[in-house]
Amino acid sequence: MMEGSENDSFTDILLSWSLEDIVSDNLYKLKNYFGSFSYPLLDETRAQLHSSMETLDRAPFGEVTAIEESKPYGKKLYDVEVDYWRNMSSDSCKEPYKTLPGHVFLLSDAKPESISDIQESKKSWAFLIVTEVSNRSFKVKASKELQVSNGIQASLLMVFLINITPNIRIWKAIDNNKSARWKVLFSDNFLKSFKKLKSFRVKMSLLFLLLKLSKI
Q1: Residues ≥6 apart with Cβ < 8 Å to 100
Q2: C-beta separation of 156 from 83 below 8 A
Q3: How many domains are contained in the chain?
Q4: Where is the DUF6469 domain (predicted)?
Q5: Are residues 109 and 30 in the same domain?
């Protein structure tokens, strides 16, 4: 289960992004402030999301069989059920796909092949972030209000994008580090070097290290 105001602030930012924001490498280019640990993290999350949306044809997906608004009402929270997952494994991931809290989905009334399909299409879509899981039933937070009728809406698909659980852990660490004695300046050179790192794990480890150093 995903809980806490820190999670809410991070997921709210992600859910506020438009497609134009996601494809823009300059979204956080000017956010080079002292102590702005959050901006490299947000930009990395944006880049992850963009990359995943370029290969939607290979992503796990399932057809929605039921969807209804969840309490507290008016918060864009929903209970969703799917029939079963297709594309459950790939060459890059041998383990069958399993839904967990922190997983981000694209909800669409058609199966897109890439982000360009969404940009060019007039089909309806939204981002969903899973907060709780029970078999093939999920509690999700949506990027916009969904139109539901009697708990069922025809021809909706959930397409898996990324897992933001590690990102949320970093975000919480950043939030807990607001009283650091000194701050780090994320210069243009640092951000350029940071983006060149290929491993997401290395990037997150580097942010953790900087956070620890800022507490000294």
Answers
A1: 130, 133, 163, 165
A2: no
A3: 2
A4: 60-176
A5: no
